[in-house]
Amino acid sequence: LAEGAEIGPAHLGLGLPGPGSGPAGPVQPGEPVTLAEAERRAIDAALAATGGNKARAATLLGIARSTLNEK
């Protein structure tokens, strides 16, 4: 889990602002990432961080569980 009160891109495995590895694979510096891909990576990372618990993942992402289910 994230240290401190804020969760940033590095905690979600988005590979932003620099190179990193998210659930969908590595992102190279300067490589564009679509909004849909960033969203998918954030959801995958939140589900991984919560052991697949959708309610906790939705809370971590700041969205309703119904929104997570739609994604």
Mean pLDDT: 77
How many DSSP H or I helices?
4
Q: What about the largest sheet?
A: 2 strands, antiparallel
Radius of gyration (CA) equals 12 Å
Oligomer: single chain
Anisotropy-based shape = globular
Describe the structure.
This protein is mainly alpha-helical and 71 residues long. Helix 2 crosses helix 3 (54-61). The longest helix has 15 residues, at 35-49. It contains four helices and two strands, in the order αββααα. It has a two-stranded antiparallel sheet with strand order 1-2. It has helices at 9-12, 35-49, 54-61, 65-70, and strands at residues 20-22, 25-27. Helices cover 46% and strands 8% of the residues. A hairpin with a 2-residue loop joins strand 1 and strand 2.
Q: How would you summarize this macromolecular structure in one to three sentences?
A:
The protein is 46% helix and 8% strand.
Feature tags:
mainly alpha, 71 residues, 4 helices, 46% helix
